[in-house]
């Protein structure tokens, strides 16, 4: 079966975007992670402004990938599938995710990676999202 190029994303540089939170761009798919005392927590999500992913950077998150893709919903689903292969859901409730995520939520999009090579898993996932 031929690879559907629309599913593969064009990586973009977060520094290319001004800090204006009001400007609406085509959908971004982001992969952000936080080092914690209990492994790495990684989150994949979608946003049409820079506000959401910049919020997570302001809370100590580190950007592992930022993409624009024609099939952005398929890309986000693929990222969640890849994260689920190497980790488990990080939070059981919104309240449990509040200290890390803040009031914007997204606890159902977070995975806890416990292995010693969690950072290399994130690098592989980001590469796979870009190149398939």
Descriptive tags:
6 strands; disordered N terminus; alpha+beta; 6-stranded antiparallel β-sheet
Describe the structure.
The chain has about 130 residues and is an alpha+beta fold. The chain has one domain. Helices cover about 35% and strands about 25% of the residues. The chain is built from four helices and six strands, in the order βββαβαβαβα. It has a six-stranded antiparallel β-sheet, with helices on both faces. Strand 2 (about 30-35) and strand 3 (about 40-45) form a beta hairpin. The two termini are about 15 Å apart. The model is unreliable at about 1-10 (pLDDT under 50).
Helical segment tally?
4
Counting DSSP E segments of at least 2 residues, the number of strands comes to: 6
Rg measurement, Å: 14 Å
Low-confidence stretches: 1-8
Task: Give the percentage of residues in beta strands.
Answer: 25-35%
* Total domain units: 1
Overall, the morphology is globular
Strand order of the largest sheet: 1-4-2-3-6-5
Mean pLDDT: 80
Largest sheet: 6 strands, antiparallel
Distance between the termini: 13 Å
Give the proportion of residues in helices.
25-40%
Secondary structure class reads alpha+beta
Please provide the ordered H/E string of secondary-structure elements.
Answer: EEEHEHEHEH
